[in-house]
Amino acid sequence: MAAHPCWGAGFGGSTLRKRSGVVKKIERSALVAFSRQQMFALVNDIESYPQYMAGCVGAKILSRGDDWLEARLVHSSAGFKQSFITRNQLVEPSSMKMSLVEGPFKTLQGEWSFQALSDSACKVLFSLEYAFSNRLFGMAAGAVFEKIASEQVHSLCERAKAIYV
Hints:
This protein is of the alpha+beta class.
């Protein structure tokens, strides 16, 4: 395919006020010239995240089953360092759903999904909903975390170009 491997990206975000505090929601998408199997493989290769994901300085798979895994991610940016563990439900090659096990969040849920457009192209969708457990920390680190989270689809597209082109 002659077109650029990442054809376009969609952006969205919102802030929801729930009884327990402020919940942020981030949604990003991109059309890519790679199969959903290829993109799923990159997202599922969690231990490689520090090589290309914005702000990720550590990643380790803690346990794994046939269709799930638990992983610890460490993000650092602008003087804020956050470590958290998620349990990821894998539906290869269509999605990975993440839910918080441990970390500085009151809630953290996310999903990567891959919609086939053809044998060699797909739409990548990333959504993340979170609220920090400590409001002061959330006020201080929230913008940094939101920036990092917002860049995940772009980082994934760049990694796909580096690996598959």
